[in-house]
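pinging the channel bc i need a second pair of eyes. not urgent but kinda urgent?? the chain im working w is below, pasted from the shared doc
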Amino acid sequence: MDAKETISKYWDWRSQTYTNGICGFQDEEKSVWKNELRAVLNGDGGLRVLDVGTGPGFLALILAEMGHTVTGVDISAGMLDRARDNARMMNLDADFRHADAEMLPFEDESFDLLVNRHLLWTLPDPRKAVEEWARILKPDGRVLAIDGAWFDPSPNVRLRKGISKAITFVAERKLPSFYSVFGEHYNPIRRELPLYGDTKPNRVCTLFEEAGLSNVSFKYLQEVRKFQNAYGPFSYRIAHKDPTFLVTGEKA
């Protein structure tokens, strides 16, 4: 089984229990994300947007609510089913398709904006992916990549995650199946994923520049962080102390 098949099967399994953000599609959490996106996009509506690695459609449907025309793609059929269910539940119009983030089935210069959330660490060839994203953007189009240092191998991060697992164990009397299944699927391929342990802002900025994007910059999503601290489980806050960040780049 190659890396992409492994990844697809894992996220098909996760789609059964994967949550949308911390609280799902509740208004307060959506409002936080909309405010963060408005600050970067300078307003609402009017863009043709591609959400790559859309998962259950979290970003895609928030952007659709903001008035954009949104297409979401994912390698996992299970996640796409969840995204379509969420779109129906929210009475929103979004186009969800099965596609590979590194080989998109769209013509050159098809979109104004490409977004992704928690995707880069899963890609076997992230530079190829970003080059492909630039290809389908119109001139002056932008990429917005939202991520975090999920698998930082440094000792202090590993310690925090160990404490988080212990808290979960005490609270639930067992280790959640997520840990065992994640390890079973990802440990054999982690060396094939260049950003698995290196999704940090400066590394992603360098990747964007190497792929030919200009005006590359990043910001920490402080309002998202405040919301996660207020509403996220205590074990989650310990394990993910580093704030979520957003990297932007433009097609020249």
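so The first strand starts at residue 48 and ends at 52. and The chain has ten helices and seven strands. — does that match what u expected or am i reading it wrong
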